[in-house]
Amino acid sequence: MTRELNDVVVIDAVRTAFGRAGEKGIFWNTRAEDLCVPLMKALIERNPGITPDMIEDSVWGVTNQVKEQGGTIGRMIPILAEWGWKIPGCSIDRMCASGLTAIGFSVSHIASGMADCLIAGGVEHMGHLPMGFMRDPHPRAEELLGGASAFNMGMTAENIHDRYPQFTKEMADEYARNCQEKADRAINAGKMKDMIIPIDVELADGTQLTADRDQQPRPGTTMEGLAGLKTPFREEGGRVTAGNASGLNDGAAVVLLMSATRAQELGIVPKMRWVASAVAGVDPTIMGIAPVPATEKALNKAGLTIADIDIIEINEAFSVQALYFLDHFGLRPDDPRVNQWGGAIAYGHPLAASGPRLVAFMCGLFKENPKARYGLTTMCVGRGQGYSIIWENAI
Ligand SMILES: CC(C)(COP(=O)(O)OP(=O)(O)OC[C@H]1O[C@@H](n2cnc3c(N)ncnc32)[C@H](O)[C@@H]1OP(=O)(O)O)[C@@H](O)C(=O)NCCC(=O)NCCS
Known about the structure:
The structure is a single chain. By secondary structure, this protein is of the alpha+beta class. The chain is built from twelve helices and twelve strands. It has helices spanning 32-45, 73-80, 98-111, 141-145, 153-163, 169-188, 223-227, 260-266, 291-302, 319-328, 344-347, 354-368, and strands at residues 8-15, 19-20, 58-61, 89-92, 117-125, 199-202, 208-211, 249-259, 272-281, 309-314, 374-381, 385-393. The strands form two sheets. Strands 1, 2, 3, 4, 5, 8, 9, 10, 11 and 12 form a ten-stranded mixed beta sheet that branches. β11 and β12 (385-393) form a beta hairpin. The structure holds coenzyme A.
């Protein structure tokens, strides 16, 4: 029996505001599941014609699958939404790209005909479950991953600076300052409004707040301010700082995917169409370079070159890793196609939530740029992986 692949489309993508991890964070008193449930409900509310019973699986990326994020949170989220027991769910871990992988898996399920309508999200409460919490690496892991630095993402970024000294600290800081400026412009222009679902929360001091704004961005960031910051991952001669790295954050984001046929039957206009996905592995001690081979593979599968890509959303785990990617593809650090609304250095990086966050940005950017045809979402992943998905504007 031979089968054609089904076309897969994105109907909508939403997210929570991203909070800072820790007691001063807006989500300190909010559980991970309670970040996800309002997003699911919002997707249904804002997409008339779609009802919970149409959702054939609730696929959630989550890096730290213990405590509130354990127990197959993907299954629990629709149950906590009080949608009954009929919506299955699962949890996926590919560290930072867990959410993007949830989207990739869901795309494959729809393309292959296994499903017509899926939810694919990502959530990470790094305040409640810090990076590496309760992890127990194999005794040979350090040796086989290439050294102790493979376990510390900031050190992997220092390693990229070492290996490719043409990317200086000043360049990393300049990239970070531009990122903050772009994010500030986008926020003030209201670009986040359509994608952020407000959530009522109680702060650590008991104050009630409607969380509808990202907590991480630092408008007014200057080169002088960045130059004076500590280099926590290497005391002497380090280049990676809190200013040119993504932060530690809490947040969730989710995407509603459908087969193009089902969307058409329902009279729903999709936002974008899936084109190609690829994942790649690299030396874990310089994991940040991995978006390059992942993107090359995805471009190859799509029969495209980087010149065909009108919008690039790269998750900026660290400035240096984004600089490496851009340099490899011959793009300037300030190329207007890249992270037009700023990236993770400004908004933060709640690990598994960042992939669907990139997709939400892509939907918004395609809408604003109807002439843009192709877009790329790409991220690096701890232990040395990269994940890239190419999309086509459907608006
Ligand atoms: C880099 C890191 C250690 C910093 O953590 P932190 O010390 O809690 O960060 P903070 O936000 O408190 O910032 C530290 C200092 O820098 C300052 N700072 C941060 N960004 C700044 C900016 N853009 N301009 C000026 N100052 C800034 C803060 O004000 C703070 O100053 P203070 O110590 O005087 O209060 C942390 O964010 C981190 O680990 N990031 C990487 C996360 C990661 O690995 N993710 C996975 C990627 S694959």
